[in-house]
Write a structure and sequence with these properties.
single chain; 300 residues; two-stranded antiparallel sheet
C-alpha cells in the first residue's frame, strides 16, 4: 500500500539539494515554519527525506521497534565509507550480535583508562600555542582527536608508525569532509556511490591500512595484555566462541574513526569559540578545571 508523503518545499530538487548542502539550517527552519513538525525534503539523488521536528516524534522514532525503524537501511548513504559490516549498516540479529561483541570494549571503566592518552594529546597541542597567535581551531582539534583515536582505538603508540598512519587517514578524512566533493557525489543515485571512483580511490588506502593493522595485531604476541579498542575487539567472542573477521574489524574501525574524529573536533572547536565570546562562562570553566568536580566542563 502506497502512502502520500507529507507536504514540503515545492522547489525543484536541484534547488532543494543546493539549499540542503550549502545552508541546511536556514532551509530546514523555513520548511519547519511553513509546513509544521513533519515535512518532506526531496534531493537530486532521488531520495525523499521525511523530517520530524517535534521531540515526542523524535523520541518515538529513536525508541521504536528496530524491525520497523531499521537504522541500517537509513544509514545506507554511509555504506561506501564505513563498509557493509559496520554496526551502522546492520539491522536485526546481525546488528544485535555485532553490538554484543563490541560493547565490552567500550565499558565505562575501560573508557576512563584512556584519559591519560587524551590528556597527553591535549597538553602536547596546547604547549605549541603562544599568546597573541591566531590558531586554526578546526584543523588543530582534528589533529588532537585523530591522535587520540590512533592511540586509544588503533593502539598505535610508536612515533614512526603514527607518522606513517596519520597522512593515510587524513587524506581519506579530508575527502569525506570536502563540501565540493560531497556535492558531486550526492548528484548521483545512492546505489551508485559504492562504485564512485573518486570516493573509492580516496578511501582505498585507508581501508587497506586498517585491514593490514587488524591482521598484524591479530598475530601480536602481546595481544592479551593490550588495552586498546582494536585489541579488545580482536579478543571478543560470542556465545558460540566466534569473533570478528578482519573485514568486520576494518569496517568497525572505519566507523569509529568517522564517528569520533570530525564530530569531536567540531564540538571542541565550537566550545572554544563560545567560551571566548562569553567571559563569564570561561571563568566558570576555568574554576571548575582547577577546583570543581568537572560537571560544568562536562556541560560545556
Amino acid at each position: 500500500m502506497s502512502r502520500q508523503l507529507p507536504h514540503g518545499p515545492p522547489w525543484p530538487t536541484s534547488v532543494q539539494t543546493l539549499a540542503w548542502i550549502t545552508r541546511p539550517k536556514p532551509f530546514l527552519r523555513r520548511a519547519h515554519a511553513r509546513y509544521g513538525d513533519v515535512f518532506t525534503v526531496k534531493l537530486l539523488s532521488g531520495e525523499n527525506f521525511v523530517m520530524f521536528a517535534h521531540p515526542d516524534a523524535v523520541k518515538e522514532i529513536l525508541t521504536g521497534d528496530p524491525e520497523v525503524f531499521r537504522a541500517g537501511e537509513g544509514n545506507r548513504a554511509l555504506l561506501p565509507v564505513v563498509g557493509s559490516r559496520s554496526v551502522l549498516e546492520l539491522d536485526g540479529a546481525e546488528h544485535l550480535q555485532t553490538r554484543r561483541l563490541m560493547l565490552p570494549s567500550f565499558h565505562g571503566e575501560r573508557m576512563q583508562s584512556y584519559r591519560a592518552i587524551i590528556e597527553e594529546a591535549a597538553e602536547r597541542e596546547v604547549a605549541t600555542w603562544h599568546d597573541g597567535e591566531a590558531i586554526p581551531l578546526a584543523r588543530r582539534m582534528q589533529e588532537v582527536t585523530l591522535e587520540v583515536i590512533m592511540r586509544a582505538v588503533f593502539g598505535v603508540d610508536d612515533p614512526r608508525e603514527l607518522g606513517e598512519l596519520r597522512p593515510r587517514l587524513m587524506r581519506a578524512l579530508a575527502w569525506i569532509t570536502d563540501t565540493g566533493k560531497l556535492t558531486r557525489l550526492i548528484l548521483h543515485p545512492p546505489e551508485t556511490w559504492p562504485e564512485y571512483q573518486p570516493l573509492k580511490q580516496a578511501l582505498a588506502p585507508m581501508h587497506e591500512t586498517l585491514l593490514e593493522e587488524a591482521r598484524r595485531r591479530r598475530a601480536a604476541p602481546d595481544l592479551e595484555e593490550r588495552e586498546d579498542v582494536l585489541s579488545m575487539l580482536l579478543q571478543a567472542r560470542d556465545e558460540d566462541g566466534n569473533g570478528l573477521s578482519d573485514e568486520d574489524l576494518r569496517d568497525q574501525l572505519v566507523t569509529l574513526l568517522i564517528a569520533g574524529h570530525e564530530t569531536t573536533a567540531t564540538a571542541l572547536g565550537w566550545a572554544f569559540e563560545r567560551l571566548l565570546r562569553h567571559p563569564e562562562a570561561m571563568r566558570l570553566a576555568v574554576e571548575d578545571a582547577h577546583d570543581g568536580d568537572g560537571a560544568y566542563l562536562d556541560a560545556v
